[in-house]
Amino acid sequence: MAGLTLRSVHKAYGEVPVIKGVDLDIAHGEFVVFVGPSGCGKSTLLRMIAGLEDITDGEIRIGDRVVNDVEPRDRGVAMVFQSYALYPHMSVYDNVGFGLKLAGMPRAVRDAKIRAVARVLQMEHLLDRRPAQLSGGQRQRVAIGRAIVREPDVFLFDEPLSNLDAALRGDMRMELARLHGDLGSTMIYVTHDQVEAMTLADKIVVLDAGVVQQVGSPLELYNKPANLFVAGFIGSPKMNLITVISQADGVVTAPALAGTLTLPAHRHTATTNATMTLGIRPHDLELMDDGVLKGQVRLVERLGNETIVRVMLPDATEITAALPGQDQIEIGQSIALGFRPESVHLFGQDGKRL
Angle at CA 133, nearest 5°, toward 132 and 136? Predict the structure, then answer.
């Protein structure tokens, strides 16, 4: 097992850059999640670490070894693919042990390793079955077992849960978290699902258009997003963003606001008449008769433990509120929402956090 270092890593296809200078340090034993929208470069970055894609420029180091020109099989990594990539004519036992067999490992040693991994993944009863006889979750366990049995320095997961239904994804997230705790291995996980990122990661790397937008723990990204992209991407439902104009003494105004809002002293902006973006999490909104966000309800989603409400403000801005419990709010109803001024996030005209 080992840590991982990326220094000024670039990737271009012809004249088209897709990874634009990534610098990253991953400590031994960390669970790191690459997250971002489709096409942001997260899977490409993972494949470059695995050696399945050549890098255009920069350096990738696993432990103390530069692996730019090292073959994938010699890098000390094991990858779990979205498609599972199991051999349909082989049993689970043979699928898990195939890499060891190719490496010439003695049968007795190979058998012990396969059965040990099967115990860890609670699939000892599946060893004689073939992939066609398995559920999606069971196939994913086999793919993970095939990676574990190699005892790699780094595990790489490329959207491994995206083919599973919602309930099974939740179960497999818990299994992966347990597995990481048991093995203590370095794991890098790619997903477009920010809920997976928040629940699994020690560290999240947010990517957009091949550029790292922010690196930090899940709560660091949630509580202090570095820019508008991270603010809008991390959190479910996503953060509400409203354009406001700063006035004197920390007062802000906006067509979306019914009146003015006074920010706490430590949040004042020094520039009067500056355009800013105010961010407020849906869970920080609450029903208030004198709330500064007044509008008409456009959509209601009743989830039992909370009620998600979409509201159209006077300037046609739509916001989302996550209200606790089972509020009897109806579509077309006029409501007022408020929030504690301390809960707001402010971003400048350049999109960066103030």
Answer: 75
